[in-house]
Amino acid sequence: MLLSPTWEFTRAEGIPRVAAIEYPYGRPVGQIGDREGQRKVLLEAVSVFEKAKRPGEVFHLPFTWPEDPRKTDWQPPEMSPLIKFYLEEIRQARKG
Q1: Domain of 23, in residue numbers
Q2: In this predicted structure, what is the pLDDT of residue 21?
Q3: In the chain, fewer beta carbons within 10 Å around the N or the C end?
Q4: Structural domain tally of the chain?
Q5: Within 13 Å and on the Cβ side, how many CA atoms surround 45?
Q6: How far apart are CA 72 and CA 66, in angstroms?
Q7: Considering the entire predicted model, what is its pTM?
């Protein structure tokens, strides 16, 4: 089972069961810091295991993104450890 904002693509790629969610890319479980909202999304996604009876099924989760996706703050307040580790290499690669 895959939690996906692009259910058409994931189903076409052969993912057997999809929990579809209409959330922006990079935020499949919800907004940063919204522990309760994220918990609800994850519990609903896990329920697909009980509901799915055959391969190819798509279950649309009953959640709506609470703001205009174009206004969503995509960056977390702190850099991820992997980005921090590779930051100099990323800068060098961008210089080309």
Answers
A1: 2-69+76-95
A2: 93
A3: C
A4: 1
A5: 20
A6: 10
A7: 0.69
